[in-house]
Amino acid sequence: MKQILKALLAAGISFAATTAVLAQTAELRIMWYSDANEGDVMRDLLDRFEKANPSIKVNLDRVPYRSILEQLPPLLNSGQGPDLARVTDLGGLSRHYLDVRPNLRDAKYFDDNFGETLKWFRPSGNTNGVFGVMTQLTLTLPLVNSTLFQQAGIPIPGPTATWDDWAKVTKDVAKKVNAPFAIAMDRSGHRVSGPAISHGARFMNGDKPALIDDGFRTMMKKLVDWHADGTMPKSLWGSVGGSTYRGANDEFANGQVVMYYSGSWQFPQFAKTIGKSFEWQAVQQPCGSAGCTGMPGGAALVPIKTTKHPKEVAALLEWFASEPVQAEYHARTLFLPAHAGLAKKGIAYQTDDTNVKKSLEAAVKAVAATSPTAFAYQGYEHNRIMFNATIVRLNQAIAGEMSLDEAYRRMQADVVEGFAAKGLKVE
Amino acid sequence: MCRRAAIPARLQSSTRERALRIAGRFYAALMRSVEPPFAWLQKQVGIRGMAYAFVLPNLLVFGIFVALPMILNIWYAVTGSNRLSLVERPFLGAENFRVLLECKDYFDANSCAQDRFWRAVHNTMLFVALQVAAMVLLSLLTALILNGRILARGFFRAVFFFPVLLSPVVVALIWKWILQRDGLLNAFIVGAGGERVPFLNDPSWAFFWTIFVSVWAHMGFYSLILLAGLQAIPADLYEAAEMDGTTRWRAFHRITLPLLMPNIVVVLVLTIIRAVQAFDEIYVLTGGGPGTATQYIVQFIYETAFANQVHLLGLASAASILVGSVLMVLTLVQLRISYHGKN
Question: Which domain holds residue B295?
Answer without folding.
Answer: 95-342
